[in-house]
Amino acid sequence: MGERTEQVITLSLPSSMQHVYLLRAVVTEILKETDFNEDTQERINLATIEAGTNAIQHGDREDPDKPTIFQLILTENELIINTADEKAESRHKESETEQVITLSLPSSMRHVYLLDVVVTEILNNLDFAEEIQEQINLAAIEAGTNAIKHGNKEDPSKKAIMQFLLDEDKLTIVIEDEGEGFTRKEVADPLDPENLLKSSGRGLFLMEACMDAVTYEANGTIIKMVKYKT
Q1: What residues does 53 pair with on adjacent strands?
Q2: CA atoms of 102 and 13, how far apart (whole Å)
Q3: Residue 10 has what pLDDT?
Q4: 80-84, 131-135, 179-183, 217-221: which range is least confident on average?
Q5: If you average pLDDT over residues 24-50, what whole number do you get?
Q6: Cα distance between residue 138 and residue 130, in whole Å
Q7: What's the 3-state SS for 13-55?
Q8: Average pLDDT over residues 205-225
Q9: How far is CA 100 from each of CA 53, 183, 227, rounded to the nearest angstrom?
Q10: Distance between CA atoms of residues 219 and 217, nearest Å
Q11: What is the average pLDDT value for the chain, to the nearest integer?
């Protein structure tokens, strides 16, 4: 009998009912990649929302400072969903007004679509113009792709962690990988005529062009991007 393979996707949400839509969006997209029929998918989705609602309303009683974690374990023939309350605050939280949403993905390009789903759903509920939303989405996908493909070398045993810090005047996106890191100044400038045919550096250039501020921490294994609302 072969070894059971599983992919673990983790979504951490503030304990507030206003964010349950994100859980539904992620589970819906994951189920599309399975062999469950439509009726089964709908039952799983309804059960997931019920479990998530109970965890938020009865676990931490809708305290947004105490995140609720949803662990989605996908195997070849089943989807397991666990919920838990997280008492510790986010390591990247900087402001008392921030709400933090965290998505943790195995380092496989097959899961990048889930990052797109989460970013799109978050932006649909923020006051950014459509053009700005597209820029933020592009920057987030580039950063997530870099973390999975270049940082973690698509090693599924390593995680790519994406945090979205929702503040009154800005959105901060923090992407962290478990790779060896890099030095920003050593990455080739894609606008230099000598590098026009090279692909390296284009993702970083796009991120920096789309966001108001981009910083590199922990030897490049953490990228922090900020977009202000005004």
Answers
A1: none
A2: 7
A3: 94
A4: 80-84
A5: 89
A6: 12
A7: ECCCHHHHHHHHHHHHHHHHCCCCCHHHHHHHHHHHHHHHHHH
A8: 94
A9: 18, 28, 15
A10: 6
A11: 85
Distance CA 163, CA 70 (A): 15
Q: Return the H-helix or E-strand segment holding 135.
A: helix 130-146
Q: Which of 133, 131, 221, 217 is nearest to 171 (CA)?
A: 133
Contacts of 127 (CB under 8 A, 6+ apart): 229
154: left (phi over 0), alpha (psi -120 to 50) or beta: left
Q: Please compute the mean of the pLDDT values over residues 140-168 and round it to a whole number.
A: 94
Q: Provide the edge-to-edge strand list for the sheet that holds 170-176.
A: 79-85, 68-75, 6-13, 99-106, 159-166, 170-176, 222-228, 213-217
The pLDDT score that the predictor gives to residue 62 is 59
Decide: 177 and 158 in contact? Cβ < 8 Å.
yes
pTM assigned to the model: 0.84
Cβ–Cβ < 8 Å for 139, 225: yes
pLDDT band at 145 (very low <50, low <70, confident <90, very high): very high
First to last CA, the chain: 58
Report d(CA 160, CA 68) in Å as an integer: 19
